Amino acid sequence: MKQGQVHLLPSLNWKVLLDRPKSKLPQPLDSNQGEFYYTRNAIWHSLKYLQLSPGDEILVPAYNSRSEVQALADYGLKLNHYDTLPNTQVDTEALEKQITPETKALYIIHYFGFSQPLDEIKKITKMHNLLLLEDCALALFSKYHGKLLGFYGDAGYFCYRKYLEIPNGGSYVLSTSHSKIQEMNLTKPALLSTLPELAGLLIKPLSEHYSWFASLYSWLRKKARAKLRGKKIDSGISDFAREHVNWQVSKISKYILYRLEIPKIINQRIYNYNYLKQTLKPLIKKNNKIRFLNLEEQDGFVPHCLPLVVHDNVFWQQALAKHNIETGAWWHYDPFFPNAERYPNNNWLRQHILEIPIHQDLSKKDMDYIVQRVKNIITKK
Prior knowledge:
By secondary structure, this protein is α/β, with parallel strands linked by helices. It folds into 3 domains: 148 residues, Aspartate Aminotransferase, domain 2; 50 residues, no CATH class; 119 residues, Aspartate Aminotransferase, domain 1 (Alpha-Beta Complex). The longest helix has 24 residues. The chain is globular. About 2% of the residues have low confidence.
């Protein structure tokens, strides 16, 4: 039997739906402040509680998925982009030079599960009296010095579906120093948005075991998204939409959340990351065509993926897709990004970062298959 599909994100075993619910969820899944269909909705709604006003300036990383900064811009904030270092870490020295008297807040992204240098960042925000907004969409469950990311600043934002097998879900957590959260007029999401995502999660296991179904699944997924979720932009990135800003997390997502074994999922992701990295290490040492991103795994690190540096992430994405391995050419192209030439590291990251899956569904066989295909591509080039 040929290798089936290796997905970028985990699938949902239907047996989970029959499990007994847990009595409570771990942080940050236990948020009682605001849970939404999309994380970008959480960002937009949080701004009024942070007492930010239209026209206020906020520093945002140039290396972003666009939907998060669209939420900030839609609210009326003035965006001041900053470049990160080539390893995605905040260049605190350069960042501080961009602060103006109009700057009210700093928005940071914890990429791929790795923490930003929070000690230095907190010094800057305290010195300049700035709000600190932590984007943890790619760092759910990661900790820094024993404390969850997202709880260091004035607001933390989380995306459940990037780590967990649920159709939708995002939340924010605000520090206790801000005003009490008021009742929000949230609405149920469109059923025709939730059901295709749920169906996709449930039928993924078939594509993981049968190569012919992998092709069928991919075709059906594209057709369903185009039909039911509206126009898709070329870069594959979903935009912020004001008409959906009040959508709450779906009931089925909450139902599934209470039935997932979160500690087991965390441990499996860490194991898979370490296994895949150690297995790839001898291969990477022998050539200069790919390498690991220069980041340190600190205690409490829970990976989103294994980021590799390659010469052309789209080439690699397409080459691995031919062998049913789904990867991410991370935010490769954003046609709407302003003054891109001013942010060389942002441009470099968009062209060279390849996201390799390490999620909880992967077996050793899957990961060995990934390594073998990476090796084949290297030797052919």
